[in-house]
Amino acid sequence: MNFSLNSKTLVNTKADCLVVALPEKGDWPASTTEADSALGGLISKLQKAGDVSAKIAATSLIPLNDQPWSRLLVIGTGKDEDRPPSSFRKALVAMTGSLKDGPSKTVLIALSDTPVTGDDSARSELAKLSLIGRTLEDQLYTFNDFKSEKPPARKLSKILIAASDTGKAHKEAFNLGLATGRGMNFTRDLGNTPPNICHPVWLAEQASKMASDHDCIKTDILDEKQMQKLGMNSLLAVGRGSSQPSRLIIMEYRGGNAKDKPHVLVGKGITFDTGGISLKPGAGMDEMKYDMGLSVKIVTERLMKSKAGIYSAVDDQYNQTNVYVVYHLSNFADAKNDTDLAKAFERKETKFQRKDPDEAVAEEEKPVATKPKATRKKTSTKE
């Protein structure tokens, strides 16, 4: 998809479809007023006749003739006094749903001048451009890698975003949204990839590729022998029953000064969880691959922001930091034995016993105190 900002007047920008906002009450955004004037008051007439709705996320597609645009998409944005970013996003989601599989190849979106409630950071045009970019990437997502029959390609190929300026600050704000959306989509790709492909070794390869593609990211991968040498026996025990070896990934994002203390994110990723396989219904087993979703999420957003090259005031504090990400990857399968014995860092023996089929219960081996059996005193009765 080709995304770009556009600061030309609407009437001087040709597109297959123009998108404008329609509030329930109050003044219209300048872009809506401009479009209505160019169309001879068409939007005003349609609203008066009740043919278009201004309720939040309502959509009305109107064919046009002899205009710079072949069709007009009117998006309801509700009331001005009740339009937080979440409601504005609802309108953006509805807009994208109407456009993504439609006949338009080129779309001009004129929504960045729609008022949004909240603090200054939410109301600014830069914030709205970022939200538009993130929502577009999010809602245009598809995953067809493993389908034998691919769906037909979408006609939509170019999206223009109307903005007051196309300078550096506006471009970086919009690119920040696109980068965040792409990071979300990359996380989805990893989560949707089947576990016979997306196993610990494969995920470690993806992390290494990030480092090779971006100078600001450094990645170290520890295999099972290295983990064993460091005494990471409890981690290794998780994947002991699987044919897929475990991995420990350490990623470093260098955005701040070398002496700055880093933010550290630590987590785990289970690429497939067969715990309680005897109880889980077959319909839900495929969802066990999502146990590793959080571990990939914490790195993908950082990756895409790095890829976008954003180091401006829009996201300055976030990017100019040092971040360490440490996460353990295992494929949790039922072990051969009912009880596995592991030695943790403290060198204490820890027993993992499957008392509950869906949960491995770890307990430190130590004697259990028992109470003496109570004895009933015999009593005699006189007749």
Automatic annotation (TrEMBL):
Basic and acidic residues biased stretches: 348-368
Region named Disordered: 348-383
Keywords of this entry: Aminopeptidase, Hydrolase, Protease
GO terms of biological process kind: proteolysis
Keyword Protease: yes
GO cellular component term of the entry, any: cytoplasm
InterPro entries: Leucine_aapep/pepB, Macro_dom-like, Peptidase_M17_C, Peptidase_M17_N
Biased composition (Basic residues): 373-383
Pfam families: Peptidase_M17 (PF00883), Peptidase_M17_N (PF02789)
A molecular-function term among this protein's GO annotations: metalloaminopeptidase activity
Domain Peptidase M17 leucyl aminopeptidase N-terminal per the UniProt entry, residue ranges: 19-150
Segments forming domain Cytosol aminopeptidase: 185-294
Keyword Hydrolase: yes
Family classification: Belongs to the peptidase M17 family.
Protein name: Cytosol aminopeptidase domain-containing protein
Classification of source organism: unclassified sequences, metagenomes, ecological metagenomes
